[in-house]
Amino acid sequence: MATIVNTTEEEPTLAVVRSTAQLAWADAGAEVADPEVARLCAEAQQHALAGRWLDMASLMLANADLLLLAPTAPDKAADLECVLTVICNLVTKAESEDEALEIARLICAKLAHQPGDKPTLRIKVLFSLYNLLPSLSGKALVYRKALELAAAGKAADCVVPTFKNIDAFVAYWGIGKPEQRDLFLAVTRILKDHKGMTKEYFKFLNKYLATFDGSADDADAIGAAKEEAAAAIIEFVKSSDLYQCDLLDMPAVAQLEKDEKYQPVYELLKIFLTQRLDSYLAFQTANSSLLQGYGLVHEECITKMRLMSLLDLSGHCSGEIPYSAITKALEINDDEVEYWIVKAISSKILDCKVDQLNQLVIVSRHTARVFGMPQWQSLRSKLGVWRGNIASAINTIQANKVTEDGGQGMQGLMIR
């Protein structure tokens, strides 16, 4: 956050009004310029004496475009930032949070005008404004405006590092579901075309879609999420790192099942999360042009679907999968089984041992393609069994210890 240090006898806000007024009337000649500059300075002084900081902000911002849109030499960039920081500092003088918020809105609107010009500086100033604002709702507003400016000004690098703190921001601001939804959607639109951020893009798509809980309050808004729901499905299918997701449980995704345009995309998700390779191959035969339209490569889909089919086998077996079951489900030859097992292990979705003699794969852990209520109940059951086993082991150890201690006492008595 920038700190204002007054280096002149004139109050910083008045100095800014004077300098911008002189710049605005520089070409008018002294006879016209001097009275206008004096008038604006007198008006600013009246606002300051009366504590009318919203009016002061309007006055100071009136000529801000002259600074923002004019060519700025590198050695003058700091001067421009200083002027804008003085304007932002007005929110600390406001007599109420509402007045501070209105001042912030004026500043945001001015900085959002022609965002392609000096976008980095504009975003930096918005972050300074964020730190100066007292209200949490005001901070949330300014952060959103910074995201919008970054997107419009093609300056995503200025805001992407802050995305790792989004969950902390949301908790700190205390904003509701609609505001969270707008925030996550803004983030996804920045990440969508940002190179190397595919995982983060999918993560925030999920966060956005999860804000729709299927309640009556969401009835009007959920229809607008269809495009993002379809995009999340495509990203999941494309990814070579993702083998589990909760998309099927989300109302925003479920609505695609009856949507004329996106129903095939929903069907594709169901195949990847609940079915095996043969179902995908049948779907691809009937929808090859659709898959190509979404940029899906058939060979890559087959690779992923074979691994998903292997996970499905692991989930339905009792810990042992015969080679014959794998060759059938994955549609491969016997000599390819171990290749796909190694591929699943290297992808960290399967832990197992291969019994070549008996042609068995002994599974100790596998990734569940979906993790809903049945999986939670199964995990709870396993934890209950493990807890009982540990308690039984502790009781046995304690009983043995008592027996040993008793035996040693008898030995001491006999020696005496």
Strand content: under 5%
Strand-pairing-aware structural class = mainly alpha
Low-confidence stretches: 1-7
What is the helical fraction, as a range of percent?
55-70%
Number of helices: 19
- What's the total number of strands? 3
Using only C-alpha atoms, the radius of gyration works out to 32 Å
Q: Give the strand order of the largest sheet, numbering strands 1, 2, ... along the chain.
A: 1-3-2
The rough form would be described as elongated
End-to-end Cα distance: 81 Å
Strand count, sense and barrel status of the largest sheet are: 3 strands, antiparallel
Q: Write the element-wise H/E pattern from the N-terminal end onward.
A: HHHHHHHHHHHHHHHHEHHEEH
Whole-number average pLDDT?
88
Oligomer: single chain
How is this structure best described in words?
The protein is about 65% helix and about 5% strand. By secondary structure, it is mostly helical. Among the domains are: about 1-65 and about 80-155, no CATH class; about 175-210 and about 225-275, no CATH class. Strands 1-3-2 form a three-stranded antiparallel beta sheet. Strand 2 and strand 3 form a beta hairpin. Helix 6 (about 95-110) packs parallel to helix 8 (about 135-150) and helix 8 (about 135-150) packs parallel to helix 10 (about 175-190). The longest helix has about 45 residues, at about 375-415. It starts with 11 loop residues before the first helix and ends with a helix.
Short description:
By secondary structure, this protein is mainly α. Among the domains are: about 1-65 and about 80-155, no CATH class; about 175-210 and about 225-275, no CATH class.
